[in-house]
Amino acid sequence: MEQLLVGIDVGCRRHRVAVGMPDGTLIDQFDLDHKPASFDEFFLRIEKQAMKFSLPVSVGMEGHGGWARPLDEMVISKGWTLLNVNNLKLARFKEIFPSPAKTDAIDARKILELMRLRPLLPQAKEILNEVIPAPQVNHDMKLLTRRRRQLVNERGMVINRMHSDLQAIAPGLLEITGSIDNLWFLHFLTVRDSFDQLTRMHKSSLMQIKGVGVKYADLIHNWQRSALLCSDINLMGDMAIEDAQRVLSLDEKIKKIESHLEELAPQSKLATAIISITGYGIICATELAGEIGTLKRFTSESALARYIGMAPLDNSSGVYTGAKGGKQVNRRAKAAMMTAVARHYWHTPQSKEYYEKKRAEGKKHNQAVRSLGRHITRVIWSLMKNNKLYKPKEMPPKTT
């Protein structure tokens, strides 16, 4: 079916637009500022061309999401076809069919060339993927799990910094706790305004700190007797207290997001199906459901497996046999899948047997987990296609 082709090279403040016909004729090109008024002008301009030629509109956009928002959402709301341009493969296309120069206008026209070749060239279909909106609940889970991951990473960074600071300003302090992020320890660090006051607290005051009982109060009191503080205690002590307060604040925000995810998960068919698999918890299941969005995006379960990093590509040559990871893997989905699969095989006898078989064949831990994850991807695909939940098979009784 012929369509009016619109190629957009996305920038942070301004986008370059090229409009063409299916036969390759360029009929319009212009700059589009990332402003509401410019968006309105863009849609009026394209709709005018579509009415003139009586053609439906297909938009190819470099960088779906990110700087392209909310223009990509507005295109979908118009009922137009939205194609996401794979940047890496677009670069390869431009290497094969080079242009005399590199500008935003040339890039926009290159996108038009790809869109025109898409019905004829199989590789063009891989470069231009149609954007299919996911259910709103899955989209919300995607935003929440990505935000949670950012907070968790930030928490780890603050913990590491606080660890090195405490080692420098108060040698021996960390020996009283098994982990620096224990709640009672964080509450102890933040109970006073300055760090040196912690060395002078009475045992009765220590007992009033949330999470500090007789055992931890005695440990703190023993540290106080021989406490040695460095000369930078005034500045670095305040920094350590601020970091401890930041960790406690991050913990509250992470718990709030996790509580929200628990409310959303039952509303998502995909998340519900994934959670039913043994070993898959709320966090990994909602992260997978959010990143996958909808199975309508994938032509087969093998395409889904490649997307979530469970299907390495063959990388053999001559007598050498090997594999490599795909460059277009969703790393968030892969990390969630690897974590969940590792828990799954530990609680599922059949899967553990398969994992141990792969290990016996010489595969490393991650390779064995990924091999098992490839089978679980098929399970997820089947559960969704048949609208079922996972039911583990019962192991036959061992004969003596």
Word description of this protein:
It is a single chain. Helix content is 55%, strand content 10%. It has 400 residues and is of the alpha/beta class. It folds into three domains: 4-131, Ribonuclease H-like superfamily/Ribonuclease H (Nucleotidyltransferase, domain 5); 138-263, Helix Hairpins; 269-386, no CATH class. The protein has a six-stranded mixed sheet with strand order 3-2-1-4-5-6, sandwiched between helices. Strands 7-8 form a two-stranded antiparallel sheet. The longest helix has 34 residues, at 136-169. The chain is globular and about 85 Å long.
CATH homology group of the largest domain: Ribonuclease H-like superfamily/Ribonuclease H
Residue stretches low in confidence (pLDDT < 50, at least 5 long) are none
* Percent in strands: 5-15%
- From the N-terminal CA to the C-terminal CA, the straight-line distance is 67 Å
Largest sheet: 6 strands, mixed
**What is the overall silhouette?**
globular
Question: Which percent bin holds the helix content?
Answer: 55-70%
Total of DSSP H or I helical runs spanning 4+ residues:
16
Order of helices and strands: EEEHEHEHHHEHHHHHHHHEEHHH
List keywords for this structure.
16 helices, 400 residues, two-stranded antiparallel ribbon, Nucleotidyltransferase, domain 5, alpha/beta, single chain, 8 strands
What is the element layout, followed by pairings?
Elements lengths: L3 E6 L4 E7 L5 E8 L2 H18 L3 E6 L8 H7 L3 E5 L1 H10 L7 H14 L4 H6 E3 L5 H34 L13 H7 L13 H5 L6 H12 L7 H32 L4 H7 L6 H11 L8 H7 L5 E2 L8 E2 L6 H17 L1 H12 L4 H22 L14
